[in-house]
Amino acid sequence: MLELFGKAASINVRKVLWTLDELGLDYTRHDVGSGFAPTDTPQFRALNPNALVPVLRDGAFVLWESNTICRYLAGRSGREDLLPIEPQARARVEQWMDWQATELNTAWRYAFMARVRHSAQHADPAAIADSIARWNHLMGLLDAQLAATGAHVAGDDFTLADVVIGLSVQRWRQTPIERPALPAVADYFARLQAREAFRRHGDNGVP
Fold first, then answer.
1. Whole-prediction pTM value?
2. CATH code, 2-76
3. CA 138 to CA 107: how far, in whole Å?
C-alpha cells in the first residue's frame, strides 16, 4: 500500500494527491505538517532529512520532493500520457515541471507569505511589490505558452506539467494581488476545471 505523509492543504501534497487520483491508485495519507504531526522529529527526518512534506512510502522505498514523487507514480503506473517515454516529449514536460519548481515558486513565495499567510517576516512593501511583479511576469510567459499550444502546458495533451502548474495557477488566482488579464491562462484554468481530480485536489480554494 502506498503511504503519503502530508496535510491535504499543502500545495505540494496536493500535487501528489491529484496525481494519485488521475492514476486511480489506492493510498493511505497521514496528516503531517503545520497543525498536525510535526516534521521536525527524528522519526520524520528518517523519512526526509529536510523535514518537509510530502513524503511517499512505497513498501520499503521512500521518496521526497513533490515533482519527483509525481514522476515516480506516473512511471510506476506506466502512464506515458502523463510522462512520455520519448526523450524530447519527456524533456518538454520536465522542463515546465522544473520551471514551476524553480522560477515560478521562487517568484511568488514572498508575496504569498505576505498576503495569505500574513507573515511578519514578509512585510517589506518593496519586496512584496517585486515578488508580485516577478510572479505576474512569469504568468505572462505561461500565458504565451498556452496561447501557442492552445491546450495544455507541454502541448496538446494533459501531462504532469499541468498537475504542478495547474496548482500554481490556482494559487495565483486565489492570492489577493493585482493581476493582469491573461486570457490563455483563464481558458486553461477552465479546461482544468473539467477534470474531476482537479476539482477535488486542485481547485478546492485552499491556498
1. 0.95
2. 3.40.30.10
3. 8
